[in-house]
Design goal:
Blueprint lengths: L17 H4 L3 H13 L6 H9 L1
Length: 53
Amino acid sequence: MTSPHQESGPAPVWEPDPAETEKSVLAAFTRWAEREHGIDLPDYDALWQWAAC
């Protein structure tokens, strides 16, 4: 997933361990949406675009 922070913004104070993010509810939902709808959601921006449309 990509960072929601803009390139010109301040550096994040903390970022989660990638192994932990794979255990999150958001990651589980993303995998479900990919399987259920036959789509590829490689990052948060793709998930947001799909979910918001």
